[in-house]
Amino acid sequence: MKKHLCSLLLALLCSGFIFAEDPSASVDMDFLSKAKKETYIEDNSAVAWKNYNSGKQIRDMGRRLGAEVRYQAEVNKAEFPFSSGYPDYKYKAARVYPSSKAGADVIYIGKSARVGTFKNLNRVLSGYIERAYGVSMAQADQIAMKVCYWNTNHYNDKAYFKANFNHRVVEVFENRTKTLGLARSYKYWPGNARIVIPFTIVKEIVPEAAEPVAPEPEPVPEPVPEPQPVVESQPEPEPIQPVYVEPEAEAEPEPVTKPAVKEAEPAAKKAGLFASPLIFIIGGAVLLLIIIIIVIIIVNKKKQED
């Protein structure tokens, strides 16, 4: 088990070095930066509905070309990466690696392409550059425009291409058209144009491993004593002299006067003693008088009965 694990780790390590040293292509802007703007004659006639393609569909034509060329170059490691333009075969592309001179991708515009405006041609080239070189669509649009201008600046200038590029750049697709570069008129594009995209090889090299160096310890600053707060001297408070206060004389209690009601109590008692017998006498007299009246009435009734 340990032997298989070690073999797997060794294989992954070796493959990492191989992929790190794998060359990749990048558009050579040293050539394209010298391009001067061109004006093109375009086809302004109406497009039949059966021949109509959206902007995305036109870009996708170039994207399929670019993806195929990149696959042939990076995966299949082909010596001469090529894309036939399947399934419609309107465009073809090939990559010529640099020798002692520069290399380039060459795109052939087929007779059935029916491209008649600079805008649509730029879309095809932008789609190709986007996938073949792994750049964004916005970057590809700018590069494609410079590619068109540069190819028109050097239209059919084979002496220029032979002097600066691998001889195969001039020879590729020569069996289909002798023209190299891009004409100013759309009439000479389908079946008569080979557009050259210069590129350079970028080889990533893994830097040699170096032993890590321990960082030097940073000097620790000495602690700075904090300033002590300054205390202002204050005068000592003067001693407070005790003040003697004479005690106030206690107030004599006022004599309590008895209410006058109590003095009148004996008189009321005396009056009550004298009033009680008088009441009994009067009551007895009244009772006696009532009895006498009742007796007289009874006597009178008896006489009348007799």
Keywords:
306 residues; alpha+beta; five-stranded antiparallel beta sheet; 5 strands; elongated
Account of the 3D structure:
- The chain is built from nine helices and five strands; from the N terminus they run H-E-H-H-E-E-E-H-H-H-H-E-H-H.
- The radius of gyration is 65 Å and the shape is elongated.
- Strand 2 and strand 3 form a beta hairpin.
- A five-stranded antiparallel beta sheet has the order 1-5-4-3-2.
- Helices cover 43% and strands 10% of the residues.
Tell me the layout of helices and strands.
Layout (H helix, E strand, L loop, with lengths): L1 H19 L2 E5 L1 H4 L22 H20 L7 E2 L7 E6 L6 E7 L8 H16 L3 H17 L4 H7 L2 H5 L21 E11 L56 H4 L1 H41 L1
Put the structure in a nutshell.
With 306 residues, this protein is of the alpha+beta class. 43% of the residues lie in helices and 10% in strands.
Helix and strand content put the structural class at: alpha+beta
Distance between the termini: 166 Å
Radius of gyration: 65 Å
Coarse shape: elongated
List low-confidence stretches: 1-22, 259-265
The overall pLDDT average reads 80
Main sheet makeup: 5 strands, antiparallel
Write down the secondary-structure element order: HEHHEEEHHHHEHH
Strand count: 5
Q: How are the strands of the largest sheet arranged?
A: 1-5-4-3-2
% residues in beta strands: 5-15%
**Helix residue percentage:** 40-55%
Instruction: Figure out the total of helices.
Output: 9
